[in-house]
Amino acid sequence: MKTLILLALAGLGAQLVDGSLGMAYGVTSTTLLLAIGTNPAAASATIHLAEIGTTLASGLSHWKFGNVDWKVVARVGLPGAVGAFAGAHFLAGLSTEIAAPVMSLILVSLGAYVLVRFTLRGIDRRNVGKPIRKRFLGPLGLVAGFVDATGGGGWGPVGTPALLASGRMEPRKVIGSIDTSEFLVALAASAGFLLALGSQGIDLMWVAGLLAGGLVAAPIAAWLVRHIPPRLLGSLVGGMIVLTNARTLLRSDWIDAGDTVNAVVYALLGVVWVLAVVHSYRRYRQDAAIESADAVAELAERNVADASTDEPVGAGRPSAPRD
């Protein structure tokens, strides 16, 4: 019973983060399952079975709040499903110890780019609304789906920063579209694991616990992402990517850092992340004040113009009196 409660709380927290930042459900949940002794393939299979329900609820919630671009969902989600199905079969017979640090290095680099870009520059709205090319979305979905299935998580950490970096979508729509398309990825990965492993190592009660917590958090997260300022949201996402993948990189055979080094690096990264978020929030407040002042000035000019056009005919300088 205690395990089920813990899993439900983990599912709630993971979905709250995933639904509002576009990542970390799989990473958080998989870490917990591995910590209690589940083998990697069974852990990933359990997470993806739970994600069928959580991603469906999350997608519906994001759609309700207007956070979804359905063209992007189809163009990235279908290749993602193919990649996830292949990744599930790959993981069933192969360890990911070698691939993990490589992907972590890539994701740390992407996260740092997103963090710096949104913290220092905000959103470049010159490209917002422009269509994203299929030749970009297809390979992105394929790679992200494969990573997600083999690593027990990765659809958000790969897909979210790549779409944010394109500058062609609002952060809330990037997150909503990635979360919604993840339903296809979870469905395909689950099918792949069931075909490759059967039900070996999968505890349906654990699936139910994770699912219950995720279903509670999904609509809350979709509401949050609509109300968090985009610049602040970008800084939060970038920091989450860096911190999540730095841990894997530091503990890999490449570095094999000790506890002291890990603690120092985490502390430094945490301080940088907090400073970045604070800076983004302050700049958001400044930009909002400027936009508000500009809006008031524009409204005043419009009122003056309307008043001059509504002036009665004949009004103005009085004519000279007649004899």
The best one-word shape is globular
| Average of pLDDT | 75
Unreliable spans: none
> What is Rg?
24 Å
User: Would you list the SSEs in sequence order as H and E?
Assistant: HHHHHHHHHHH
Structural class: mainly alpha
Describe the structure.
- With 323 residues, the protein is mainly α.
- Helices cover 79% and strands 0% of the residues.
- It contains 11 helices and no strands.
- The chain has helices spanning 2-21, 25-35, 40-64, 70-92, 99-120, 134-151, 155-166, 171-197, 204-227, 230-250, 259-309.
- Helix 4 (70-92) runs parallel beside helix 6 (134-151).
- The protein is globular, with a radius of gyration of 24 Å.
- The termini are far apart.
